[in-house]
Design a protein that fits this description.
- The chain is an alpha+beta fold.
- The chain contains 24 helices and 15 strands.
- It is 42% helix and 11% strand.
- The strands form three sheets. An eight-stranded mixed barrel has the order 2-3-4-12-10-9-5-13.
- Among the domains are: 97 residues; 80 residues, PGBD-like superfamily/PGBD (Muramoyl-pentapeptide Carboxypeptidase, domain 1, Orthogonal Bundle), CATH 1.10.101.10; 215 residues, Beta Barrel (L,D-transpeptidase catalytic domain-like), CATH 2.40.440.10.
């Protein structure tokens, strides 16, 4: 009796709702399966087993057909055993999708992407799907499909943050989306491929946005690694999926530096300028001084208004006179300041060359600066010092996000290009030496000083230098003798310069221990600070206003008068800072200054070209390159007791409850 009822129920399935075309074939197959089962020893099958046999005998297309699972589940809900079997059927269907997703995650390859290998994002992808039960995230329901559309919108707008949408398959995934939305619900493979492709692209974008696309150490940027992960990307995505706030993810993950946010605004401005550039092209023939004839006066004024160096409401008489007017001179001076030149208002060769740089190149400079800022760990509160090498400038911050016109800012001299480049680094300033010794590096002794000593044995005394066996403020000098030359060649003897007017470090040295053994210091050669290009040192950074920097560093320890006294005496004195100050030697050719002006500098070391080449390789950065490794566990030696430990006897009424 139950068997005939079951067969009738299967015949009465609503076949009109099935997601495939050959509906008649499915009906015939259901009839065929049930009739054949009736001809066999039906008494050996329970009602639940018969239903399961019928369903599992269908094609994989019919397994997910709309209506069949619902109706079978309704039918079997009358007894607990039947309901249990229905759960197993649904689990089998979900398992098929999970198997496809698991396969993609395991192989770390998705052919839907232009970069199918995602091994460096595989851990996050696995976590993302594991925590959601290996369900579709961007397909399969109206809510998921809405989130998927928002993700594609985010990827298409990657350029807002200086990233390339093509690296995240934005257009390709958008083109595949209509077909993905119409996939049959049992087309597990294609559903899994598209859904995971969207997830991989989103994770790639968010990871690149927060950490950058390049391993900085691979291009000799010796920045401090992050101590640990502060952001769990899979958890963050799941959280915003649940809260229906996916569109907020980019703003949450982009760097919070004010410098980055201001560059982002300038990027939008310069993108517009690059698309509709002002028709201005000027060839340098000779320098043009204020008041001289300027045939390009009209187009220059339009250019300076476009880039913000002349107010739009300022109208000069340049159109009538074709002269280099005061209004244009003021705009050119501002332009010169923003491009690392002396603001003399003269239209010289360097100024004209900077004005004719394509604005698309300025866009690239901003993008590269934003990429480098993504490499920096989250800033700590408190004072910090930043030297931007190609800008030849130092800024001292009470807080990196508090940029104002009153903050200490000074010119610096950096290492000579192609010879003694100042390294990019992060370190902690720990102490200051007033009236320091200059401990001459061995390579300078070998290449520069030793040949002079051989020619003139009196060279050391003339330069206020002396011989020592080791460096140190308390080390005693040794006399010059016949073995001195060999000792200097072999490195058993060293040279240092005594404090005084000739000392290469000037009156103060700011020390932050680092592998490159570079530091900030004063200099007796102040004339170099008047030049617009200032790469003359052996690698250390010379500061134009050491007294101001000392006041900043010691403001919670010493008065201004105490600093002036230390600079006026010939006694060497070391001051240990109560709190170390982070120091960053950085390299960006685009920077927002303390007056909120976007500045551009020459790529003196060629690092922009190196970074651009690295970005063109389009690879995922490994987390191993970003985070410091965990300290190795020290094995503990287990010491066996000499005698067996006897258990203590149980104590009764010992006062404890």
């Amino acid at each position: 009796m139950q068997l005939s009822i079951l067969v009738n129920k299967v015949y009465m399935l609503n076949l009109k709702k099935l997601f495939f075309r050959q509906k008649r074939q499915l009906k015939n197959r259901i009839c065929f399966v049930t009739k054949n089962m009736c001809l066999k020893k039906c008494s050996t099958y329970t009602s639940s087993q018969l239903v399961v046999f019928c369903v599992l005998s269908l094609s994989s297309h019919s397994l997910f057909a709309e209506g069949i699972i619902t109706q079978l589940t309704d039918f079997m809900s009358t007894d607990k055993q039947s309901a249990s079997m229905a759960d197993k059927i649904i689990a089998n269907q979900n398992g098929s999708l999970a198997n496809e997703i698991t396969y993609i995650v395991t192989t770390k390859n998705n052919p839907y992407l232009q970069r199918p290998d995602f091994k460096n994002r595989s851990e996050d992808i696995e976590t993302l799907y594991k925590t959601t039960g290996y369900k579709l995230l961007w397909l399969g329901s109206p809510e998921a499909e809405k989130n998927g559309a928002q993700v594609l919108d985010i990827l298409e707008k990657a350029a807002v943050n200086g990233l390339n949408p093509n690296n995240y398959d934005a257009q390709s995934l958008k083109q595949k989306r209509p077909a993905a939305l119409n996939l049959a619900s049992d087309n597990y493979k294609q559903l899994a491929l598209y859904d995971t492709a969207v997830s991989i692209s989103m994770l790639r974008f968010l990871h690149d946005l927060h950490y950058g696309r390049v391993n900085p150490k691979a291009i000799n940027f010796n920045l401090k690694l992050r101590d640990k992960k502060l952001i769990d990307l899979p958890a963050l995505i799941n959280q915003h999926l649940e809260q229906d706030t996916v569109l907020q993810l980019p703003e949450l993950l982009e760097p919070k530096f004010k410098q980055y946010q201001n560059l982002k605004k300038s990027l939008a401005t310069y993108r517009v300028l690059a698309k509709t550039p002002v028709d201005f092209n000027m060839e340098f023939i000779k320098s043009i001084n204020p008041g001289d004839v300027l045939t390009k006066a009209t187009s220059m004024e339009q250019f300076l208004i476009a880039v913000g160096d002349v107010p739009a409401e300022t109208l000069s008489d340049s159109k009538k006179s074709n002269r280099y007017t005061d209004e244009l001179v003021a705009g050119v001076k501002k332009f010169q300041l923003r491009h690392g030149m002396n603001a003399d208002g003269v239209l010289g060769k360097s100024t004209v060359a900077a004005m004719t740089v394509p604005l698309s190149q300025r866009v690239t400079q901003i993008e590269l600066a934003m990429e480098r800022l993504r490499w920096l760990p989250e800033p700590s509160s408190g004072a910090s010092i930043i030297v931007n090498i190609p800008a030849f400038q130092l800024w001292a911050f009470d807080d990196v996000n508090e940029i104002n016109a009153n903050m200490p800012n000074m010119r610096v001299v950096v290492g000579k290009a192609l010879k003694n480049e100042t390294p990019v680094l992060m370190a902690e300033m720990r102490f200051i030496d007033f009236m320091p010794y200059w401990n001459v590096p061995y390579n300078i002794v070998k290449k520069e000083i030793l040949p002079k000593i051989i020619q003139n044995p009196g060279y050391l005394e003339a330069e206020n230098m002396e011989l020592v066996t080791t460096f140190g403020n308390e080390t005693k000098a040794v006399s010059f003798n016949s073995s001195t030359i060999n000792g200097l060649k072999q490195g058993t003897l060293r040279i240092r310069q005594r404090p005084g007017q000739k000392n290469a470090l000037g009156k103060v040295k700011f020390i932050f221990p680092n592998k490159s053994d570079v530091y900030l210091h004063d200099t007796p050669s102040h004339s170099l600070f008047s030049r617009s290009r200032r790469d003359f040192s052996h690698g250390c950074v010379r500061v134009a206003n050491p007294e101001q920097l000392a006041e900043f560093v010691l403001k919670n320890q010493w008065t201004k008068e105490a600093i002036e006294d230390a600079l006026a005496t010939q006694k060497t004195r070391r001051v240990i800072l109560k709190k170390s100050i982070p120091v960053l030697f950085f390299y960006v050719t685009s920077f927002i200054d303390q007056y909120d002006n976007v500045a551009f500098y020459s790529d003196i070391y060629g690092y922009d070209a190196v970074l651009q080449e690295a970005l063109n390789k389009s690879v995922d950065v490994s987390d191993k390159d970003i985070f410091a490794p965990l300290p190795a566990l020290v094995p503990v030696e287990v010491i066996a007791p000499k005698e067996p430990i006897k258990p203590e006897a149980d104590l009764e009424n010992d006062g404890e409850p």
